[in-house]
Amino acid sequence: MISINNLVKHFGKVAAVDGVSFVARDGAITGLLGHNGAGKSTTLRVLYGLLKADSGSVDVDGIDVLQTPLQAQERIGVMTDAHGLYPRLTAREHIEYFARLRGLPAQVINDRTQVLLARLGMEDIAERRAAGYSQGEKMKVCLARSLIHNPQNIIMDEPTNGLDVMTTRSVRNILQTLKAENKCILLSSHIMQEVSALCDEVIVIAGGKVLFQGTLDLLIKQTGQNTLEDAFVSVTGTGA
């Protein structure tokens, strides 16, 4: 479970995150929604240890990210929208490399790599170098390396951005499987159809503040709108 309480982060005089609080629970997919500059990315970067908060608390399975970031990171798998693959490494080599960075034993690396290659349908690219991969193939490698240490909490930034229909369906199936395994999944997305199809709850952020957390049905009901997109615009005040 991920718990953030009264998180504050400034860049100069600008409050990028201004008192953000929310909970992402185990066995659920929680969507983080907000327009560009709303504070989503800053919040996520503090959560997985790339930025240090000015104040507030961030807990991952009861571990304080701000006080013991390395211990907390053992419980987190992160997939960002920047793939950052090494073009001369194969899919298998990417996964094994990140596993070694995590300090996993050789036999565990071998076993988990085989499972992930099969689970994500990557057998055909396992021994092929990353140069020339499609967007979907890049995404699968990034997802595999984020899951190699079997984290309880999975953070995903725009997981289906630029993917074709079949690959998007594959990602959805993978996320539903992880949810069934009682994982905590926090994903940021601009695609309202994706959020509607996947998320059990949503968190709406604007101006560095949380404006709503709850189910999609509750958001639509409270705003009196008919669609998630209209409800989002109503809450954030970003409509024309």
* Class inferred from helices and paired strands: alpha/beta
Cα-based radius of gyration, to the nearest Å = 18 Å
The largest sheet, given as strand count, sense and whether it forms a barrel, is:
6 strands, mixed
- Helicity range: 25-40%
Number of strands: 10
How many DSSP helices?
A: 9
| Order of helical and strand elements | EEEHEEHEHHHEHEHEEHH
Strand content: 25-35%
Low-confidence stretches: none
Distance between the termini: 37 Å
Mean pLDDT: 90
- Oligomer designation: single chain
Strand arrangement within the widest β-sheet reads: 6-7-8-3-9-10
Outline type: globular
Written overview of the protein:
By secondary structure, the protein is α/β, with parallel strands linked by helices. The chain is built from nine helices and ten strands. The protein has helices at about 40-45, 70-75, 90-100, 105-120, 135-145, 165-180, 190-200, 215-225, 230-235, and strands at about 1-10, 15-25, 30-35, 55-60, 65, 75-80, 155, 185-190, 200-205, 210-215. The strands form two sheets. A six-stranded mixed sheet has the order 6-7-8-3-9-10, with helices on both faces.
What is the compact description of this entry?
With 240 residues, the chain is of the alpha/beta class. The protein has helices at residues 40-47, 69-73, 91-101, 106-119, 135-147, 165-180, 192-198, 216-223, 228-236; strands at residues 2-11, 14-24, 28-33, 55-60, 63-64, 76-79, 153-157, 184-188, 201-206, 209-214.
Key descriptive features of the protein:
four-stranded antiparallel beta sheet; alpha/beta; 240 residues
